[in-house]
Amino acid sequence: MAQLTADLERHTSQYVEAFNAGDFAAVDKFYTTDAVAVWEPGKPLTGDARRAYQREFLASRPKMTATPRQVFVTGDTALMIVDWVIDGVDADGAPERLQGVGVDVLTLGEDGVWRYAIDDPYGQR
Q1: What is the DSSP code (8-state) at residue 67?
Q2: What CATH number does domain 8-120 carry, 3.90.1570.10, 1.10.357.30, 3.10.450.50, 3.40.50.2300?
Q3: 73 to each of 31, 59, 111, 119, how far by Cα in Å?
Q4: Cα–Cα dist 113/108, whole Å
Q5: 47 CB-contact burial (10 Å; exposed 0-12 / middle 13-18 / buried 19+)
Q6: pLDDT in tens, 59-77
Q7: Tens of pLDDT, residues 9-52
Q8: pTM
Q9: Strands (E) located in 11-94
Q10: What single-letter DSSP state applies at residue 93?
């Protein structure tokens, strides 16, 4: 099972592991309580809406690959630019490939673990 990490260099691979396992509870732990996610451009989600959207998306068992392109850190805040691809199925059951360049802001918690504060997979257009 994917583990949360204090090692920012391993954060993306650990997140991908939890995502590919379809483990919503594990994936959710990678986010701050008040995280903002923008999985559909122009539609930011927080709280229960963010969790419901992600739970439903993971239920279709998509598979992700992701590679950090750039990582910048200042204090307890990090900015990550990540190339990603998700292979899954659309609403009609046909194969679907999503891809983009994500712009993510992470914060370092008091427990020493990095978590997403802002997750914008389509952030760089």
Answers
A1: E
A2: 3.10.450.50
A3: 17, 33, 17, 16
A4: 6
A5: exposed
A6: 999 999 999 999 999 999 9
A7: 889 999 999 999 999 999 999 999 999 999 888 899 999 999 99
A8: 0.91
A9: 31-37, 45-46, 63-74, 77-89
A10: S
